[in-house]
């Protein structure tokens, strides 16, 4: 097995050195070439230790535009395998690309109240409709997909007595682990999403969850192991399978303001992510683990987070826009940098307040917010489903406001590519 995972997956600013994670059972060297039109623009060689994952960064500055990454594995002087992947290097003076690099999607949203404008339509979508959903997303230049969760569960930490054996959640796919099923028209929407993402050159983080919100107990850990193993067995062969997303979320201040729980429960997260990451690396050595807490008071609990983050590959925090006067992006990124964790952003694409359901922000508000995250290498939106929708879609996923935002963002994306001199070529 020879595998390479690049973080970020498909697109990066020229100011960022992407990370390469490489695993091989037999190769002892890797040659990376950056090509355009068959001509080599950049290249480097790195030594490998067979049977272990090698991690390094490499600058792609000087190769702005649509390029190809070619990976050649060697055992001594003998080339044992070659593979390649499209990549995009965006010109600019900041780490951010200025685009929505990825988005969450829902198979079925966890909150009927929040999803009042699209959940009933989601339940009508068949496998082919989910494929089209991803294809339409791809037209916007969105290359990353985060599946919010693959099981539905309404439980919260400390308010249930479930074990792995008594779990009563409902699966969004044909799970062999638990009998409960969410009533959906689609038979296997996870397979449909990955199949479409394969065709579109997109990358998918599988949402391993939901056991129970904010729950990182021993039973939750074992449940996540079982589900991750099944997901890998069913879907791990897809080219678009990029890694794992733990769906449970948590507050930036952990359990310190979440009574009546003991604040000391934060220690469970350190054990959970250490053990879960070790487990999934045995399944797929180079695939990252991602997690999305909110940002509230996160930096005030830096010491606690520094015991957790070394086992989280990508942190994608949310809720910055809810309290812009206490923006702590810089402080959070410094903590992540110290721990070797990539920090992206989970940009909420809905208007505030949202008591009556999620409604898309205006394009002007969306662009203003994107600029707040210039220091981060990737901007992921929450969420595509219900907040953007192709104007020709036969499903009313968010109504006219979602179609309008889709159309206006498409214009923005195309204008950006033209300004960079990329033309209309799509990866």
CATH class of the largest domain: Alpha Beta
Number of helices: 9
β-strand number: 19
Query: What's the name of the CATH homologous superfamily of the largest domain?
Result: Glycosidases
Strand content: 15-25%
Q: Which stretches are low in confidence, meaning pLDDT under 50 for 5 or more residues running?
A: none
The name of the CATH topology of the largest domain is TIM Barrel
Sum up the overall morphology in one term. globular
The total number of structural domains is 2
Q: For the report, how would you describe the main beta sheet?
A: 9 strands, parallel
Q: What Rg do the Cα atoms give?
A: 21 Å
Structural class: alpha/beta
Write the CATH architecture name of the largest domain. Answer: Alpha-Beta Barrel
Spatial order of strands in the largest sheet:
17-16-15-14-13-10-9-19-18
Mean of pLDDT: 96
* Helical proportion, percent range: 25-40%
Topology as H/E string?
EEEEEEEEEHHEEEHEHEHEHEHEEHEH
End-to-end CA span: 26 Å
Pfam family, one: DUF4434
Organism: Ruthenibacterium lactatiformans
InterPro entries: DUF4434, GH
Protein name: DUF4434 domain-containing protein
What does this structure look like?
This protein has helices at residues 119-122, 127-138, 189-200, 218-235, 266-283, 302-308, 329-339, 363-371, 399-419; strands at residues 2-7, 11-13, 19-24, 29-36, 39-47, 53-57, 65-75, 78-90, 102-105, 144-147, 151-152, 170-171, 203-208, 241-246, 289-291, 314-315, 342-343, 345-348, 379-382. The chain is of the alpha/beta class and 427 residues long. It folds into 2 domains: 2-90, Sandwich (Immunoglobulin-like); 102-419, Glycosidases (TIM Barrel, Alpha-Beta Barrel). The strands form 4 sheets. The chain has a 9-stranded parallel beta sheet. Helix 8 links the parallel strand 18 (345-348) and strand 19. It is globular and about 60 Å long. The two termini are 26 Å apart.
């Amino acid at each position: 097995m020879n595998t390479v995972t690049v973080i970020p997956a498909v697109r990066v600013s020229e100011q960022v050195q992407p990370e390469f994670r490489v695993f091989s059972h037999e190769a002892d060297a890797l040659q990376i070439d950056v090509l355009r039109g068959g001509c080599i623009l950049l290249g480097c060689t790195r030594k490998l230790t067979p049977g272990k994952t090698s991690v390094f960064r490499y600058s792609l500055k000087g190769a702005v535009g649509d390029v190809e990454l070619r990976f050649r594995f060697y055992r001594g002087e003998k080339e044992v395998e070659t593979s390649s992947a499209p990549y995009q290097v965006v010109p600019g003076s900041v780490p951010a690309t200025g685009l929505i690099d990825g988005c969450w999607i829902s198979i079925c949203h966890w909150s009927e109240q929040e999803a009042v404008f699209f959940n009933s339509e989601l339940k009508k979508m068949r496998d082919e409709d989910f494929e089209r959903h991803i294809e339409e997303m791809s037209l916007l230049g969105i290359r990353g997909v985060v599946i919010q969760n693959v099981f539905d569960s309404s439980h919260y930490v400390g308010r249930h007595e479930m074990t792995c054996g008594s779990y009563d959640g409902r699966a969004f796919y044909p799970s062999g682990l638990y009998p409960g099923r969410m009533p959906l028209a689609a038979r296997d929407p996870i397979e449909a999403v990955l199949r479409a993402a394969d065709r579109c050159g997109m990358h998918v983080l599988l949402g391993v969850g939901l056991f129970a919100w904010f729950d990182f107990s021993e039973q939750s850990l074992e449940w996540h192991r079982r589900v991750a193993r099944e997901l890998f067995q069913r879907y791990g062969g897809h080219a678009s399978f990029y890694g794992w997303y733990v769906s449970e979320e948590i507050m930036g201040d952990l359990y310190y303001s979440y009574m009546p729980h003991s604040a000391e429960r934060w220690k469970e997260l350190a054990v959970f992510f250490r053990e879960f990451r070790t487990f999934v690396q045995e399944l797929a050595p180079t695939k990252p683990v991602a997690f999305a807490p909110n940002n509230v008071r996160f930096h005030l609990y830096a010491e606690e987070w520094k015991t957790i983050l070394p086992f989280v590959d990508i942190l994608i925090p949310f809720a910055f826009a809810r309290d812009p006067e206490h923006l702590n992006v810089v402080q959070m990124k410094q903590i992540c940098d110290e721990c070797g964790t990539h920090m992206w952003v989970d940009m909420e694409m809905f208007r505030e307040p949202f008591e009556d359901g999620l409604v898309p922000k205006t394009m002007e508000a969306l662009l203003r917010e994107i600029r707040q995250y210039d220091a981060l290498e990737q901007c992921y939106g929450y969420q595509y489903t219900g907040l953007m929708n192709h104007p020709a879609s036969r499903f009313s996923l968010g109504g006219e406001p979602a179609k309008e935002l889709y159309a206006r963002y498409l214009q923005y994306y195309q204008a950006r590519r033209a300004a960079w001199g990329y033309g209309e070529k799509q990866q």
